[in-house]
Amino acid sequence: MVRKPLYALIASGAIAVALAGPISPAQATVVDGGSSPCFDPVAAGAARGGPNLRAGDTRAVTAAEQLQIAQRTQRILDAKVLDGLKALLGGKGKPGGGGGGGGADPAGATLTNIPVYVHQMLSASGAGRVSQAQIDAQIAEMNQDYAGQDASGHTGSPNGDQPAAAKTAAHFYLAGVDEYLNNSWHQDRSSTTYRAQTRKGGPKSLNIWLVDFKYLGIATFPWDYAANPSIDGIRVQWDSLPGGDIAHYNLGKTATHEAGHWLGLYHTFQGGCTATNDEVADTPAQATSTTGCPEGQDTCSLPGLDPIHNYMDYSYDECYDEFTPNQSSRISTMWTAYRA
Fold first, then answer.
1. Is the pLDDT of residue 24 over 50?
2. Is the C-alpha dihedral spanning 132, 340, 196, 190 positive or negative?
3. What b/e string do you get for 186-197 counting C-beta neighbours within 10 Å, with b at 16 or more?
4. Could you tell me if residue 83 is inside a domain?
5. Into how many domains does the chain fold?
6. What is d(CA 160, CA 183) in angstroms, rounded to the nearest whole number?
7. Would you say residue 53 lies in a domain?
8. Nearest Cα to 253, choosing from 315, 296, 308, 206?
9. Cα(151)–Cα(140) distance, rounded to whole angstroms?
10. 117 - beta bridge partners?
11. Average of per-residue pLDDT across 315-322
12. What is the pLDDT of residue 85?
């Protein structure tokens, strides 16, 4: 079975469903005002194959909302095509409705030239600081991953019938680094506040906040930018950068995974073992997320083995080595709809 993106099915007329209610905006993280423990990978199960540290990295998207997002995406793309035609004919087009709000992006910001602002949210004593070399290595890692070649220099090693790694259009450059000494922000408390106060750029600028929390990373989706531009970006556990100390999660691929969400990709297990799944035809459906790197894993009765090497699963860093051609196409489509 070949799965087509929902927005493609909508455009072809294969789906025509009217859903009531607006698309939910990005949900702010709610935290209490008390103290929270620092990240302990052993206690959390990283060294024992326990609870997956990548879990909980985006807000939940139900099947109904997924369809709403697909319908909205198609409307925006259609409007942008129409505006382009009007411009060619000398008419005046209207904004497509994808972006809006937020700050200004640096000149020349595009999918092939994404500015990245790294915010080091340190404790009052300076704990959680990474070196400039680690930040540079993180940007290099992301560029290698999105170019279809991981840091080890080998191209995708497909699990079963999966395609080899694709070279996506996404390319990143470091636009700035800053530091904040604040115990609360360091532990990701008051995240809505600190992101609003520190975020730089507009919809084309990727902001990365390095924090110390119980997750490996948390990301926002591009379709939530217009409603909540001030919190757009990704939060990443500071010790997951290249050279960090978290076993199996210290090659910098957490940021690659979270940036995938920021660019519009779902998890490969989105929706479970269904034909729609993550709306990407060349990532076989899987029922559940992956922990470790279990070669040959197959959790779904639909065709194909689980895409355990895909950056949008929950595998170990050393297991990751590919985005697929259709994921690459989706990244470009979502950029056009919501960030261009």
1. no
2. negative
3. bbbbbbbebbee
4. yes
5. 1
6. 46
7. yes
8. 315
9. 8
10. 176, 207
11. 93
12. 86
Phi-psi region of 62 (alpha: psi -120 to 50; beta: other; left: phi over 0): beta
Q: Across the beta sheet with 114-122, what order do the strands follow?
A: 172-181, 114-122, 206-211, 234-237, 217-219
pTM reported for the whole predicted model: 0.83
Within 8 A by CB and 6+ apart from 125, the residues are none
Domain that holds residue 253: 6-20+45-339
**Looking at the domain assignment, is residue 26 inside a domain?**
no
- Which residues face 176 on adjacent strands? 117
Return the percentage of the chain with pLDDT > 90, whole number.
Answer: 69
Q: Flag whether 139 is in a domain.
A: yes
Looking up residue 114, the CATH number of its domain turns out to be 3.40.390.10
**Which pLDDT score, from 0 to 100, does residue 240 have?**
97
CB 128 within 8 A of CB 186: yes
Q: For residue range 59-113, what is the model confidence (pLDDT) as tens digits?
A: 889 989 999 999 999 999 999 999 888 888 876 555 545 555 578 999 999 999 9
Q: What are phi and psi of 334, to 5 degrees?
A: -65, -35
Instruction: Report the pLDDT value the prediction gives residue 207, as an integer from 0 to 100.
Output: 98
- Round to whole Å and give the CA distance between 310 and 93: 39
Give the residue among 103, 99, 97, 96 at the shortest CA–CA distance from 117: 103
Spatial separation of the C-alpha atoms in residues 79 and 94, rounded to whole Å? 8
- Average pLDDT of the segment spanning 181-202: 97
pLDDT per position as a tens digit, 226-270: 999 999 999 999 999 999 999 999 999 999 999 999 999 999 999
Mean pLDDT for 118-140 is 98
- Whole-angstrom Cα distance, residue 194 to residue 192? 6
Residues annotated as catalytic (active site), given as ranges = 258
> Quick check: 51 pLDDT over 50?
yes
Integer CA distances (angstroms), 7 to 3, 33, 71, 268, in order: 12, 42, 6, 17
